[in-house]
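Hey, quick one: can you model this chain's 3D structure?
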Amino acid sequence: MDNKKSLLGRVFVLTGSFLHEREDIASNIRSLGGVVSRRINSKTTDLIVGDNAGSKVLSADKRGINVMFGGRIEDF
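Sure thing. Here's the predicted structure for all 76 residues.
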């Protein structure tokens, strides 16, 4: 059985700088059934925050969106 979890039905936005290429993180999310968007909207379920993140963190917090810090490629 695969130890990776399904991200089906979840919509992610990435913000900030990451150790890995943003597209690699996005590709891993998509391979597990998640969707990656460039902007926070009513469908966004998760914000992945790297270094030097901007105003998206405040926007996500106001909307009650799950905020995850780090964005390690191993997490997806």
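One thing worth noting: The chain is about 25% helix and 20% strand.
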